[in-house]
Amino acid sequence: xDLDETNKAVLYLLQRDARRLTTREMADRIxxxxxxxxxxxxxxxxxxxxxxxxxxxxxxKAGLQLHVLFICTAPNPRREQLAVAAxxxxxxxxxxxxxxxxENVQVEAVGTETDDIAxxxxxxxxxxxxxxxxxxxxxxxxQPFDHFGKHVLDDETDE
Length: 159
Fold this sequence. Notes:
The protein has 159 residues and is α+β, with helices and mostly antiparallel strands. The chain is 35% helix and 18% strand.
């Protein structure tokens, strides 16, 4: 699917605040009708470009003060299989496959105490992942990809 400027603007605004922006507000910012925005969202979902809507959780405020990144090695032929299997480990919140290099799987996990992290580490190893390093995460910052319609905000001074 080719993304035109309207699709890009819809993606950008959804990334910024999918929960609070209505299709009418998005339409006003983009300069199209609300029905156009609804249709574009449906198309983007049908094409798999939008695969879900997820809250951003502050794990520390949620009582999960240990937020750890495990940097792992998986044999390349099994990398995807092991990454998928890691989703079933309680406490794992994100898995990223890295295309090349020895450290080719990154697993983000949360827990309340060191025993949680030790259990997660053991379970990842039992799956066949080799943990090369682990790091305690302080915070994480995400932003929408600015190529997707940053122009829709050009006239806003509070951004």
